[in-house]
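Deliverable D2.4 — example input (structure tokens):
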């Protein structure tokens, strides 16, 4: 964590950051010190000092001081974590987008070089090579992305700040099947599903974007909403191309807005049939919210303990799933 923060601060030299925010300063004393009016209180005589070498600021008028993250906390009225996230999102989208595109393309090439990844996908019911190509599914064996991106000129601080490399300098994704997440045609995040004993789910520490593949799904007046990407993939493979995924049971405000516009859309909720009833309860709550937003919500029931992925793996056909949709009930 400490290394990540230091790399983030190196990406945004404090003096440059302030100047981009229209802070005017002149040299004071040493060549590394600059002074100007304080952004945090009214004054007529400059008392706000910045040390460009140490990347620190201090105001002799109001007593505030610290590093770049502290400045963002004060200037934007954010918490420490919010300030870190705010700075991460300021990294030029062109740099980030290019790095994510290069990473996704690299992982896609790795998929068929590693039989264990292809075997895992088959075990999860995915066998259509055209679908794998369309979804951009890849594989992260671990240990080679950093070297690949460095060879293409991507700086280490960018890779660290975006979570592609961890604080020990290793690839963040290791032995994981990779799904690129797109928004407005651009890759905004990567999802990695472990094929081993590691924690199953991992995203980069960035916003996940909206509903998965919404650019193509939004054209349908009837939409199927599922929890996970493997649920979506098996449904697409079975011909249900109006399926989208929310990466869980709780929609972000942006995802909810996507579903809710235009009003009148019909949404089939196919969440996991958990033993603890969590999925069913989440489906009921979401269905009521959708109805209040003038949508038509249907709750689809699968056999106990199943999600769409496991339902098809257990031998269900597209016709059987269509029958489940037909039997769905209103909240």
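Example output (designed residues):
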């Amino acid at each position: 964590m400490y290394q990540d923060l230091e790399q983030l601060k190196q990406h945004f030299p404090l003096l440059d950051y302030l100047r981009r925010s229209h802070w005017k300063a002149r040299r004071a004393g040493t060549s590394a010190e600059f002074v100007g009016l304080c952004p945090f209180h009214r004054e007529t005589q400059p008392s706000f000092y910045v040390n460009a070498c140490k990347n620190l600021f201090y105001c002799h008028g109001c007593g505030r001081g610290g590093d770049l993250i502290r400045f963002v906390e004060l200037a934007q009225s954010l918490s420490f974590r919010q300030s870190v996230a705010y700075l991460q999102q300021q990294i030029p989208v062109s740099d980030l987008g290019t790095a994510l595109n290069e990473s996704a393309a690299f992982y896609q090439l790795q998929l068929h070089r590693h039989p264990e990844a292809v075997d895992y996908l088959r075990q999860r019911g995915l066998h259509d090579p055209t679908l794998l190509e369309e979804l951009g599914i890849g594989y992260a064996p671990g240990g080679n992305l950093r070297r690949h991106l460095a060879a293409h000129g991507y700086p280490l601080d960018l890779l660290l700040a975006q979570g592609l490399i961890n604080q020990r300098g290793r690839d963040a994704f290791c032995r994981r099947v990779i799904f690129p997440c797109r928004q407005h045609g651009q890759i905004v995040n990567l999802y990695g599903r472990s094929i081993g004993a590691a924690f199953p789910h991992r995203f980069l520490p960035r916003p996940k974007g909206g509903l998965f593949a919404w650019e193509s799904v939004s054209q349908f007046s009837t939409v199927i909403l599922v929890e996970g990407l493997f649920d979506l993939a098996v449904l697409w493979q079975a011909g249900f191309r109006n399926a989208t995924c929310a990466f869980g049971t709780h929609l972000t405000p942006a995802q909810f807005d996507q579903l809710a516009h235009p009003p009148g859309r019909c949404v089939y909720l196919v969440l996991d049939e958990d033993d603890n009833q969590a999925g069913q309860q989440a489906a009921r709550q979401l269905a009521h919210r959708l109805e209040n937003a003038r949508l038509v919500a249907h709750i689809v029931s699968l056999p106990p303990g199943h999600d769409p992925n496991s339902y098809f793996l257990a031998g269900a056909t597209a016709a059987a799933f269509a029958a489940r949709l037909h039997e769905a009930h209103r909240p």
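Residues 93-111 form the longest helix (19 residues).
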